[in-house]
Amino acid sequence: MYSIQDVSKKTGLSTHTLRYYEKEGLICGVERSQGGFRQYTDEDLEALGLICCLKNTGMSLQEIARFVSLTRSGEHTLAERVSMLRQHRENVLDRMAEMQKYLDKVTWKLKFYTEKLNAYEAAEGKNSECACKDRA
Amino acid sequence: MYSIQDVSKKTGLSTHTLRYYEKEGLICGVERSQGGFRQYTDEDLEALGLICCLKNTGMSLQEIARFVSLTRSGEHTLAERVSMLRQHRENVLDRMAEMQKYLDKVTWKLKFYTEKLNAYEAAEGKNSECACKDRA
DNA sequence: CTAAACCTTAAAGTTTACTCTAAGTCAATA
DNA sequence: TATTGACTTAGAGTAAACTTTAAGGTTTAG
């Protein structure tokens, strides 16, 4: 059993965010102490792992809540869950391909500016003693 | 020369967004017709290409505005521009590695649920004529 | 036994990046 | 020339995902 504080440390989510996720239906059935404090199990942590995975790959909290609610509705929702995951996987793959394309552009631009900078600094060194020699 | 409508089509950004980007300092010096209409040049389009590239790889509009303003401030800002791009490139690489890790998890989950679904449908077919046969 | 450090809820506030509205100007066409 | 439709600005509104606040109950170390 973990306190909300423990879980916050383990997941990197703030305690505020953990309560918020519960309110939004992303985490369900977290047990409580007699005093009403949340007591997370290892299963809850696992569920949070999936939630973070989906969230960090661009799934909206609303969709995640939908997925979680399907998970709790029994086996007749398996087809829809599979279809959601399959679609999401496609989205992630597309996103990664796009990122790679953009990365190439950033790399190219960086090369371009680096060369420009080298030329500029060479010229600067030739023409004058520069006050900003100690630039890292 | 392109109208805001043309540029909207070419970039996929709405006309609202294009004006908004201008207001926020992401695009500068767009020419105007005698009637005050925006007239974008090929250079503006190129600049927009870089803006979209940076934005779609996770740079905030504020940072992009900063980069653009450096670009317009002369060669003494080259070092900072290079450093921004270098840092951004690192971020993109980190993000891609993270995505790959999460993708593996999604793939694994998908496999898990697909197998569960197959088992479920097999059992379903064995035990009863199901009303929802025409599921895709 | 009391004070500090936790926990609770409900609700308001914040940030980012748009997106839309209103009121008016400009351009091309019937 | 009148109307349609695209353009202009300023500013209000929206959605998502938190984040903070307020007001109060619980637990545990000293």
Brief rundown of the structure:
With 136 residues, the first copy, chain A, is mostly helical. Chain A has helices at residues 4-11, 15-23, 42-56, 61-71, 78-127, and strands spanning 31-32, 38-39.
What can you tell me about this protein's structure?
Two copies of one chain form a homodimer. Chain A has 136 residues and is mostly helical. Chain A has two domains: 1-73, Multidrug-efflux Transporter Regulator, Chain: A, Domain 2; 75-136. Chain A is 68% helix and 3% strand. Chain A is built from five helices and two strands; from the N terminus they run H-H-E-E-H-H-H. Chain A has a two-stranded antiparallel sheet. In chain A, a hairpin with a 5-residue loop joins strand 1 and strand 2. Chain A is elongated and about 75 Å long. Chain A starts with a helix and ends in a 9-residue tail after the last helix. The model of chain A is unreliable at 130-136 (pLDDT under 50). The A-B interface holds A 49-50, 53-54, 56-57, 75, 78-79, 81-82, 85-86, 88-89, 92-93, 95-96, 98-100, 102-103, 105-107, 109-110, 113-114, 116-117, 120, 135 and B 49-50, 53-54, 56-57, 75, 78-79, 81-82, 85-86, 88-89, 92-93, 95-96, 98-100, 102-103, 105-107, 109-110, 113-114, 116-117, 120, 135. The first copy, chain A, binds a DNA duplex (30 and 30 nucleotides) through residues 3-5, 14-17, 19-20, 24, 33, 35-38, 55, 60-62.
